Amino acid sequence: MATVDAYGRVKGIALGSANITAKSDDGGLSATCAITVQTGVTKIVLSKTADTINVGNNDTLVATITPSNATNQAVTWKSSNPSVATVDQNGKVVAVKTGTTVISVATQDGNKVASCQVTVPNLASSIALNLTSTTIDVGFTQSLNVVFTPSNTTDKKVTWSSDNTSVATVDAYGRVKGIALGSANITAKSDDGGLSAACAVTVQTGVTKIVLSKTTDTINVGNNDTLVAAITPGNATNQAVTWKSSNPSVATVDQNGKVVAVKTGTTVISVATQDGNKVASCQVTVPNLAKGISVNPDITTVNIGVTKTLSVTFRPSDTTDKKVTWSSDNPSVATVDAYGRVKGIAEGSANITATSEDGGFTSTCALLVQTGVTKITLNKTSDIVKVGNSDTLVATITPSDATNQNFTWKSSNPSVATVDTNGNVTAIKPGRAVITVTSEDGNKTASCSVTVIYLS
């Protein structure tokens, strides 16, 4: 039944009993051990490794020992949380309250252990969807969510279904997709208790864009204009829009797009689709109208080949539209561009006129085009004159055919020497003076240094 070696190591050979005796060499003393040889437990497993049991219900776990002919089949059952579920020594598990516990079974022989996690669920009392009705565009997706009562329901798994999959489909995650125009009911059914909730889905052709007939508009106070909104696609199911003015004190808009100007200023008229909230807008200006204009200067002279810029003053000064059109009644004498830049072409006269776009007001500048002075020179650059004597300086203008031949004389030191309008220089006292001549046209200058000495 059992053998033993010289070191006291006993080995079971077959089922049964044997006495193992140790005898001392010294004195022949002996001691005996009664050995029972059995078939030992090598493993234990449970019929379930996880289980769900509702409060008040029970389930029996079955333990299987390997080998099946093990001599000692005794086991001990235990719950890690008996306040959630208890277990008796037959493996019967009774659910007490919601929560989780581990039911374990251990063999007496070898202390082999197996376990099962038991969940006592919090059962759903009702479910609802976050939407009871909704509208989806063809080709678009919208997600529905399930709300459980109580919120800490343990098993929140649901099965989704559509009663009209040709109109709308739904996947396992509650994502609803519009397939074609029409209606469908989307239902969620809970795995826990078979509770259900539904959402009525309408599938439509959605709005993708909206545009206005104008993006900018100008309307005078008291006048009106109607903006036209165009929705894309033209067959969109929901064509409803909402109109709005960002500054109704300047201009109002009704729900037909009619804009009425109230006072000067600017406002943005916007239109938004009910479906998709697509937006288009138009900036509306209610102008401060011109009462009149003036060209500055109203009379002027310009030399041939020279450019001069005219300006326009509006009344009132805060007139909104200050655009004007320029014209010359004699472009062979003077031309004018769109910016009021006048260029002399030939000697003569021309009227340069500005016409306002707002109100058509006009104002004119009388323009004389002349041959301009390019240089002035004196017959002397230095001179010596005795006290009491005089000398005449001669000024020459270039070109000789310059229209304006006028010039002025000046002495830098009239106490030493004076000069009259004819260039006559008179010596007053010893010293030095600079006599300067300046052309009226172009402000060209020439000078002569005059030294006054005593009579010898």
Describe this protein's structure.
With 456 residues, the protein is mainly beta. It folds into 6 domains: 3-37, no CATH class; 47-66 and 73-120, Immunoglobulin-like (Sandwich), CATH 2.60.40.1080; 126-204, Sandwich (Immunoglobulin-like); 209-286, Immunoglobulin-like (Sandwich); 292-370, Sandwich (Immunoglobulin-like); 375-453, Immunoglobulin-like (Sandwich). The strands form 17 sheets. A 4-stranded mixed β-sheet has the order 6-13-12-9, with no helix packed on it. A 4-stranded mixed β-sheet has the order 15-22-21-18, with no helix packed on it. It is 0% helix and 54% strand. Residues 40-117, 123-200, 206-283, 289-366, 372-449 form the BIG2 domain. It holds the Pfam family Big_2. It comes from Desulfosporosinus acidiphilus (strain DSM 22704 / JCM 16185 / SJ4). This is Ig-like domain-containing surface protein.
Number of domains: 6
What is the percent of helical residues?
under 10%
Structural class by SSE content: mainly beta
CATH topology of the largest domain: Immunoglobulin-like
Determine Rg (CA atoms, Å).
57 Å
Shape: elongated
Task: Identify the notable features of this structure and list them briefly.
Immunoglobulin-like, mainly beta, four-stranded mixed beta sheet, 456 residues, elongated, 6 domains
